[in-house]
Structures are given as structure tokens and as C-alpha cells.
Fold each of these.
Amino acid sequence: MKTIKLHDKEFRPFISAKEIDFAVTNMAEQLAKDLKDEVPVFVGILNGSFMLVSDFVKKYPKPCEVTFIKLASYEGVKSTEDIQRLIGLTQDLTGRTVVILEDIIDTGNTLNEIHRIFKNENVKQLLIATLFYKPEAYKKDFKLHYIGKEIPNKFIVGYGLDYDGLGRDLPEVYQLKTTQHMTNLVLFGPPGAGKGTQA
Ligand code: 5GP
Ligand code: MG
Ligand code: MG
């Protein structure tokens, strides 16, 4: 792994594919243990979660169902709380154990929308599993049931996560190289903010 350039920014190696694999395996095995004979419906949040979902269900050692919803958030000029539903739920989840699979939980605004979506679905339980979590950025009170890895409040790419469209295909995770004067920019949103970005 070495430093990479995407568009105008440089990123340094941060989390290896091996470390990601370890975190995903742990989450999948712990969840399977906790759910006993319950057959969960995994709901991946597109786009960012596509790689996690693919790996997670392969590690999950019991029967399960998989579906996706697609959300987009807008940053910069518009509030990040303005989350759009591009593809919604297409099946009845009444009485089911639903496990949300998220690539990353940052401010929690997307999670807020997820809770809104599931409020009227009469599910048996809604569990949240996220591969990455930025505790310093999280502004909500929703419980996070399964966390792969806590990370600092810095912008990352790879393993499904993009910088303005690039980087989703990378099997490992990279962190934006920052100088001191860029720290505020990173704290208040990913570079490219101001355009609509897809989760
Ligand atoms: P939220 O702030 O709503 O918790 O996160 C919104 C979305 O922003 C996430 O689903 C994710 O797609 C994106 N996001 C948050 N933090 C990062 C990051 O560090 N890198 C990238 N590429 N996307 C992020
Ligand atoms: Mg994005
Ligand atoms: Mg996401």
C-alpha cells in the first residue's frame, strides 16, 4: 500500500484489507451468535455499503436475506440533514429482524433518515451495524449495535467509500493527507462538499 492520488487530493494508507476482513468477520460472527435462530434481513445502504454487504453475508454463517436502499445526502450549501431516498424499500418487513449495514457513521444524519424509514414498517427489531464509526462527529443518540472499527474524524476512501466518485473499488482504506489549515475543512465535511453526494 502506498500513497494514492484521487482527483486533486492525496491519501495515505490507513486500514489494510486484512484488518477490514478481521473486523467484518468479527461483526458477522457476533451477530450470528446474538440472533440465534432468527433469520435476519440485511439492508445495505447504497452506494457506500456494497462491498461491505458482499463480504459480510459471505462471512455470516447462517441463512439470511439481503436487500438495499439508496440514499443521497447533500452537503455544503444545503444541510446534510437533507437526505434523499433514491431507491426505497421494496418488500414487506413486518415482524422481521432488520440489520442495517452501513459503511460508515459520521454525523448520524443518514441514520436519522433510516430510523424514519423504518418507523412505520412494524419490524420486530432494527439493529445497526457499521463498519466504521467516527465518535467525534456523531451527533445523534441512536444506539449503534455493531461497530467494526472506531476511527478519527478524518475523511477516508476505499472499500466502498468514495471521494467525488473515485476510490470505491479500493480493497483497503486510505485517509486524506491533511495539513493543519485543512483540518477544519475535514471536520466540516468531505472535500467536494457543495455537490450532492451519494451515501
Ligand atoms: P452521516 O454524516 O450521515 O453519518 O454520513 C453520511 C454519509 O457520508 C455516509 O453514509 C458516507 O457515505 C459519507 N461519509 C461520511 N464520512 C465519510 C468519509 O470519511 N469518507 C467518505 N468517502 N464518505 C463519508
Ligand atoms: Mg460519498
Ligand atoms: Mg453509507
Note: The chain has a mean pLDDT of 90.
Amino acid sequence: MRTFDIEQIRADFPILGREVNGRPLVYFDNGATTQKPKQVIDAITRYYADMNSNVHRGVHYLSQISTDAFEVTRRKVQAFIHAKHEHEIIITKGTTEAINIVASCYGRAFINAEDEIIISAMEHHSNIVPWQMLCDEKGCKLRVIPMNDRGELDIEAYKSLFSERTKLVSFTYVSNALGTVNPVKEMIDIAHEHDVPVLVDGAQAIQHVAIDVEALGVDFFAFSGHKMYGPTGVGVLYGKEELLNKMPPYQGGGDMIKDVTFEKTTYNELPFKFEAGTPNIEAGICLGDAIDYIESIGLDVIKDYEEELLAYATSRLSEIDGIRFIGTAAHKSSVISFVVDGVHPYDIGVILDKLGVAVRTGHHCAQPVMNAFDIPGTVRVSLAMYNTKEEVDILIEGLQRALRMLV
Ligand code: PMP
């Protein structure tokens, strides 16, 4: 088993050495975006210094090396999530775009009036709104898997939502607002018993849990580069070849075509059919460096470390009087959401910020989750592999101080 050298890992992330408001930065907003190791930062500089050129176009040297590097990332993603074919990996702007591609292309082609789409009560807005837009357009309907007061999905209720009108299921692997890890394999199998394809939003899973799309049998899987130590502006839609092939393209433009005349256009093969226009080349290439970085440490080792940290942070936070956890699922990953009754989460966030501690406050783009718990928002502490127990202790001291001022 590989060892986890936290000092070395922290040294890889230059931003962790800076101060905020005169205090060492303690960064607990990893659910929003993770920091980047110097391996990724250097790769971005190297791209612009050594190879900047458009991809999939030129015969010249720079275009060839940037195209090769971009395509290397596709193969790294394929290996990282265990996809069967590299052309099943569509490079997108992020999770949001990946979900929108499925809603737009699969939805418009195969989902009709009165059909139903199942999502869950704990979705990020980006896994709600694209489906609502589709429903507005096509007259289809959303069915929502309810959750219990611990923030766990009700699997029996899920089973009962299926009918011959169900055309797609889409749910998150890990809730960004609650930290719940859903029983993804079981839920996919249930949908497949009804011959219904499944999209899994992997935005909060990809950096914490090893993903094997083939073993899961998932039909579509979406994630973002910036939440897995990679650049912003890049993400991935994995789709089964058979489904991607029968979907119409997303946007029209360069790269996604085979032949264009004013009479008729024929479309390119996978994956290019879904990659119109110049992509975010440097981010695409450097997503590969982020994958290399994660693999150099090992997701299994990262997972063990983060689980220990999550348990420590949860137990230290529960020592604080008045804290109420929102989301107490039996199976959780790297996210702790809480409220202190009578205190606005925002005020806690502002005081913590003055102490150099970055947390997220608010609804976390999951307003229906907040409505379900009848709260306007939470304080969210979300962990990454570079966080430490010492940082948790700083958070606890900061919180105690904040609450002395606010309560
Ligand atoms: N789904 C989940 C569960 C998320 O946490 C996020 C980001 N907060 C998204 C989707 C959207 O990701 P992006 O903004 O990178 O497209």
C-alpha cells in the first residue's frame, strides 16, 4: 500500500502557503472547487510557453503536439473511470454542460410529452434545471426520489416511481450539500430492471471515490476538472457508445462535422460530434496532469485519509454546543453541513473568513435540499486530501470564537 505523505502533498499546493487576513489560509471550500498542485499549474504554463496551438486542425507541428496532448487526456480519463472506449469520453466545460448535453440531446430526441424523468431530492441545481427546461419544452414530467431526515434517499420510494412512462433517471453520487453517498450501483440496477438509462452526477465523487463506469453499468457519468485538482472550464461526459451514437449533436460548429454544404451537413464521429468549436485546450490537456497527480497518490489512500479526517471533523464539531448537523447519512463523503439555531450561516462564514478559514455558506446550489430541512442555508465544510486535523482544530477554535460573538 502506498503511503500518504501529507507534508509533501501540502507542499505541492502553493496556495496553501499563503495568508488570508493575516492568518494562514485554511481552505475548507473544496466542494466548490479544489486548489491546484504545482504539477497542474506548471503544466498550464508549459502549455502556453511550449505548445499553444489549436487542436484537431493544423498539419503543423504545434497543432499536432497540442492535439496529441489533448487526446492523451481523453485516454487518461478513459483509464481513470474505466470506460470501454476512448470515444465515449466527451470533453465538456464541466458537469453542468455534461448534464445539459444529455438533457438536450438525449432528452429532445427520446423523451416526449407525458414521459417521466426521475431525479432525487438532493440534486444540485444543475441536475434539476436542465430537466425542467426539457419538461417545459416537451411536456414531460419530473418525479423526485424523496429523502429521509438524515439526508438518505428512500430506495423503496424510488422503486415505486417507475412506470412505463419513465425514460431516464438522473441522480448524484455524492450530495454537495449533505455529503450523502448514494447506493449508486443498486440504484442503477433498479433502473436497468425497467430498461431505463441512468445519468450519474459525479461532480462530488470523482475526487474521493474510485469510479468504474463499466462495473457500475452507468449510461452517462458527468464530472468537472476543477473539483479534482484540475483546471476550471473543463469536465467530462462519459456516455455509452450506443447511446451517444443515437443522440443528435449538441451544438453546431467546427470540429463536430464531417462535410458541410449549404444543402446538407454530415456529422463527425464520436467523440467529436459533441465537441463543437475550439475547446478549452489548456484545461483539457492539464486535466490529464490532475489525473496523474491523483493517481500518483492513489484514490484508495486518499479515501482512507479523507474518511479519517471526516470522522475527526464530525466528532470535533459535535463538541460545540448548539450545532445541528444537516445530513447525517450512514454513508458520507468529505462534506459536513451544519446550522446553529438562531445564528445566520453567513455571519459564521464572515467571522471564519476574518480568521483565515474558508467555508461555504448558503444553499450550495441545492435550494430544494434547504427547503426539505426548512432552513435558508448551512455552513459547509468540505474536505480535500490536503486538509489536516490541525486545520480542523483551527476551524473549531474559530467557530467557538464566532459563536461567542453571535449567540
Ligand atoms: N453537481 C454537483 C453535485 C456539484 O457539486 C456541482 C458543483 N458544485 C455541479 C453539479 C456543477 O458543477 P460545475 O459548476 O463544475 O459545472
Note: The domain at 6-30+298-406 is CATH 3.90.1150.10 (Aspartate Aminotransferase, domain 1).
